Structures are given as structure tokens and as C-alpha cells.
Amino acid sequence: MTRNQFAPSSRLAAWPARPDASPSLARRRRNPAVVTDVLSVGDNATLHVYLSDLFQRLRWVVGYDMSFGEALHSIRHTPTAVIVCEEHLPDGSWRSWVNKLRSVPDAPELIVVGDDRSLRSEVLELGGFDTLMRPLREADVVWAVASAWHQWRKRFEDQGDGGPPCSAA
Is 6:46 a contact under the CB 8 Å cutoff? Predict the structure, then answer.
């Protein structure tokens, strides 16, 4: 991987902040019980730094876990909207975690990062939201993650709950 594959550009100013970002929400987001917008899962620290730089400037809460086992523990304690994980994880493939993820109430949407274009059909077939192919393009990452976040949020609106657990929206 080259350095440029994960380098955010200055074009971020054109992308909006999280839809429910507000000063009062920013204060409440410091509370550990609020929603994690994006959870990066895997042992690729470069991917996590890239996602953090990209989304924290937009006032999104970004978390990081080394393995899917850690991620399952995290999402059971803090509602999480989107998981972005590597195709290969320290504790197995993303495939081995899909069913366990579905068993979590208010499960996050799953985006898998990989090198093989054929991965997309498998991710969608098994219930994931989308894939991101290397080299990552900033616009693709923002579009996929924001779309997954909106899809996760829409589940609560469809249920008539008015919003995700612990959300200020």
C-alpha cells in the first residue's frame, strides 16, 4: 500500500457534517453512552488513522478495535452505526462474524475493505452493506460510510422509535 491510498484531501470541506451534528450534540457526544458512528475493525492501524482523520473532522465518533471479538464486545455496550473492517482479521475472516453480528440488537451496517472486486457480491449476499476496494478513494469511502449510517438510522425510523438508542437525534 502506498501512502496516498489513505491520505485525506482538502476536499472534505465540501462534504457535510453528520446530519444531526449540532453544538448540543457535540457536548453530549463526549458521553461514552452515545452512538459510535464508525468502528474500524482490524489490525491495520493505517486504515483506522485514515478513517479517524476523515470522519472526526466531520464530527463523527470513530472507534477502533483490533479484532471482531473486541468489536462485538464494544457494540454490545455502545450502539454503533457502521463497522468498517478488513477482509482478513486477526480472529478470522469477516465471513465468520456475520451471523454473530446479526444477533446483536441494533446491529451496525458492515462495510468490508478488500482487494478483490468479486468480494462485493459475497458481502451483499451475506447481509453486509457494501465493500471498499483498494486503493481507497476518499469520495467512495465517505459515500459508502454515510449511506450505511443513514441505512442504520432508517431502521429506527421504520420501527417508529424515533432514533437509535442513546442518540440525541
Answer: yes
Write the DSSP symbol of residue 93.
E
Q: Is 105 exposed, middle or buried (0-12, 13-18, 19+ CB in 10 A)?
A: exposed
- Give the H/E segment covering residue 158: helix 138-159
**Whether this model's pTM surpasses 0.90:** no
Average pLDDT, the chain: 81
Contact between 164 and 79 under an 8 Å Cβ cutoff? The reply is yes
Closest CA to 55 of 81, 73, 77: 81
Find out whether 126 and 78 touch, Cβ atoms under 8 Å: no
> What confidence tens digit (pLDDT) does each residue in 12-44 have?
434 444 545 433 333 333 344 488 999 999 999
Which H or E run includes 99? helix 98-102
CA separation for the pair 165, 169 (Å, rounded): 10
CA distance 126 to 110: 10
